[in-house]
Design a protein that fits this description.
The chain has 7 helices and 10 strands. By secondary structure, the chain is an alpha/beta fold. It has one domain: P-loop containing nucleotide triphosphate hydrolases (Rossmann fold).
Amino acid sequence: MDSLLSIEQLSKSFTLHNLNKHINAVEDVNLYLKEGEFVGITGKSGSGKSTVLRCIYRTYLPHSGHIWYHSQRFGRIDLVTVSERMMIELRRFEIGYVSQFLNVMPRTTARELVRHAIVEMGYDTDYAENETVKMLEHFELDRSLWDSYPGTFSGGEKLRLNIARAMVKRPRLLLLDEPTASLDHGSKVKVKVLIEQLMKEGTTMLGIFHDLEFMENLCNREYQIKDGKFLMADRQTNLTPH
């Protein structure tokens, strides 16, 4: 099976002008995901894990290398060089991203955030409302918060909403950047249930986790990152690749 995503010799660095310092975040990263796989990335904080995901989502522009993606809409494309307009289309219809942080437009309620994620894919408002209710109920977000602004939410509530907004779209490729970082055990279980459901439906995932127990029996393969370089982990999970 051809890879849905293939990263070749990806490098990204940053210049801190105020400190007159140059930092190599990741260097010569090579990684692949076959369709339907869940691949995990582990490593210490600051090792470059999130940088890789942000390069795929194109919130960071790599300095060198290629990120080949088999798009339903556009065929095989390099996410490093595609236009901004094309990236917007991919984020809307094919590629999802969950981070630890919730960035939203002011004066937008939790219900509106999730519903808009579905409507922008072309679904009608009735379907969008039904799916929104299902997702908010799954994550047990208190009904009194549904029509409130997320700025008033706790960290865990914001994270649950962020995950709900990304997962409700059922993207082809889902990038997960520490999605369980500030969640209690019960909420982590609900995230895992949805991940397993999306995997059965064919979503391909690349996830960063500090919680190695959460990853157990979930990932097909694991990469370890150290000093900006990727290595295939020795520990293999028990999940059979799709």
